[in-house]
Design brief:
single chain, 321 residues, alpha/beta, Arginase, Chain A, 8-stranded parallel sheet, 11 helices, globular
């Protein structure tokens, strides 16, 4: 069984973490997400990773390339050229980090950044001949296409792009679209009718909050991770701030009540760490303008710490004052 460099490093407890800033603000209409990468750095993500014994390389923020002319039949869609540009740039950055044996952590930025981050990871997975799996930790399914979205906000389309749904003619073809059975939507609680209808057609692993309330946090996640392990897969995790309940994570423009609690979210991260399967990570939708003295940014960094090996008894005391 061939292991990728991040997995091999995980056996020694040291991972080469590559921080990739994605100051993307064009996938939705509420400004502020472009400040996300800076907020994560101020919240100490690099120092935390180093304290856990990992190697850290901050690759800086990805820059938006020169824009090319693109069109979409849906007049509601906005910022299409910018989103396509970010997709191309972030795909290249993610693939480069993985090719160097790194564990890319994309610091966002709204969720449209995953159009590019996952494309780069998928290209790498295809190059090394291993299946890619996606764990989508989010309040929303993000299964619209540019043709079905009514809001025109392209942060609601990444999962559809990743799954190879039609309607993304303006974007680079997604490398090796994921079979729907390789995708798990975990924690969702806000799905539009058009998305709901499309989701019924595939085999996406849908664990909405009703499922998690009924069966618990652990069992559905372990079932998905068992599939990833049995297939020798690479696992990309995309963590949206609105996966968390807004009472503990207010710094997001798409709040939906009823999200995961502090301990539930940490348990998810701890289980992911113990699996040893995660090879890349998105941190998305942090809007520092909406935060309370950095509360959400610090919580997201603490969640990354649990994913990267911090134990419950190692957690420092926090005071949000």
């Amino acid at each position: 069984m061939t292991q990728s460099p991040p997995e091999a490093a995980a056996r020694t407890g040291k991972i080469a973490c590559h921080l990739i800033g994605a100051p993307v603000d064009t996938g939705q209409r509420r400004p502020g997400c472009l400040m996300g990468p800076a907020a994560y750095r101020v919240a100490g993500i690099a120092g935390m990773l180093a304290d856990l014994g990992h190697q850290v390389t901050d690759r800086g923020d990805v820059a938006l390339p020169p824009l090319r002319e693109v069109t979409c039949p849906n007049p509601a869609v906005h910022s299409l050229a910018e989103t396509v540009g970010w997709t191309e740039a972030l795909s290249a950055a993610g693939r480069a980090a993985l090719a160097e044996g790194g564990f890319p952590i994309f610091l966002g930025g709204d969720h449209s950044l995953s159009l590019g981050s996952v494309a780069g990871v998928a290209a790498h997975a295809q190059a090394v001949g291993r299946p890619l799996f996606l764990l989508w930790l989010d309040a929303h399914s993000d299964y619209h296409t540019p043709l079905t979205t009514k809001s025109g906000n392209l942060h609601g389309t990444p999962v559809a792009y990743i799954a190879g749904r039609p309607g993304f003619d303006a974007f680079p073809p997604f490398p090796a679209p994921l079979p729907t059975g390789n995708i798990s939507l975990y924690g969702i609680r806000s799905v539009d009718p058009a998305e709901h209808a499309a989701l019924q057609e595939g085999e996406i692993d849908i664990n909405d909050m009703r499922v998690l309330d009924e069966f618990g946090i652990v069992a559905p996640l372990r079932e998905f991770l068992d599939v990833v392990k049995s297939r020798n897969g690479l696992l990309h995790v995309s963590l949206d701030v609105d996966f968390l309940d807004p009472s503990i994570a207010p710094a997001v423009g798409t709040t939906v009540p009823g999200g995961t609690t502090f301990r539930e979210a940490h348990l998810v991260m701890e289980l992911l760490h113990e699996s040893g399967l995660v090879t890349s990570l998105d941190l998305v939708e942090l809007n520092p303008f909406l935060d309370e003295r950095g509360r959400t940014a610090r919580l997201m960094v603490d969640l990354v710490a649990s994913l990267m090996g911090r134990k419950v008894f190692d957690r420092p005391t926090r005071a949000f004052v």
